[in-house]
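--- STAGE predict ---
source: upstream dedup step, 1 unique chain passed
mode: sequence only
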Amino acid sequence: MLTETAEMMDIPWLEGAQLIDGCEYLFAVHVRELEELTLGLTLVEAKAQAPITVTEDTGPLAFLELGSRPIERDDTCRVFEIVFDRNHMISYTVLNESYGRYPQTPEIFTGKLFRIFSRSHLLEFTERTTYASGGYPAPLMHFEIVCLNHVFDVIATAPPKIAVGNNAVPVPRLM
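--- STAGE serialize ---
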């Protein structure tokens, strides 16, 4: 996986997808190719925190901060590592979530933050524009991971590997 720590535990991918779906929010904190064509994502769960009752901001809009609930990582949040292996990955895209659209009919998917599409425009596009179609090299799968600020779409022939850890696990940083 992405980190070499004992606190991370590999879990079945569907269980990992369900745990991710149970999160309120996700931050993508690390995105990289672990080796050529192997995509690695490190995601951190985030939650709406207690309302702000006092602000140090003295600007004219400081009152807007009062009562707001910042979305942040806390001690109860989990860390997820997701790896799409080069032997199964066809393509991936990273989208600024501000420009993302909620899937439209005729697209069909399950999940909230970890979506699994049985029909999507991206699957159709991939089949029209690549040699990966009609079951070659295997039936295509479309996974979408929705984070605050990022949306990851991956076309692959097998599900990813997923590991989960607690918030005490150090989050890798880009150098």
